[in-house]
Amino acid sequence: MGASQQQMANQNRPKFTLSMDDQGMISMKSLNIFGTPEIQFKLNEPFVQKTINNKETKTVITLENGKLIQKHSGDGGDFIIEREISDGQLIARSKRGNVEAVRTFEKEA
What we know:
By secondary structure, this protein is mostly beta strands. The protein has one domain (3-106): Beta Barrel (Lipocalin), CATH 2.40.128.20. Helix content is 8%, strand content 58%. It has one helix and nine strands. The strands form two sheets. A six-stranded antiparallel sheet has the order 4-5-6-7-8-9, with no helix packed on it. Strands 1-2-3 form a three-stranded antiparallel sheet, with no helix packed on it. The chain is globular. InterPro entries: Calycin, ILBP. It comes from Cyprinodon variegatus. Belongs to the calycin superfamily. Fatty-acid binding protein (FABP) family. This is Lipocalin/cytosolic fatty-acid binding domain-containing protein.
């Protein structure tokens, strides 16, 4: 990622949407300046997901103690994203090994 892309990413305020249809299919979208990645899934059902760098990973999303836990398994090892609502905000924690990143989403008025 070049310097100008890093500056744009640092100023990016993505919009995250989560919805579920009447068949139990869940959709997660993250609208940002680089695109609108979307995944559709049912809880506890493994599926193949293409990552932003176009690699395929085996993914399963579960609901554990009020948190959505998204586990990716692939050649690069396991990658986990935990999403939870806390104080009216969506907190997303991404973890790989001993590295963790946290992103906070605020609800629009």
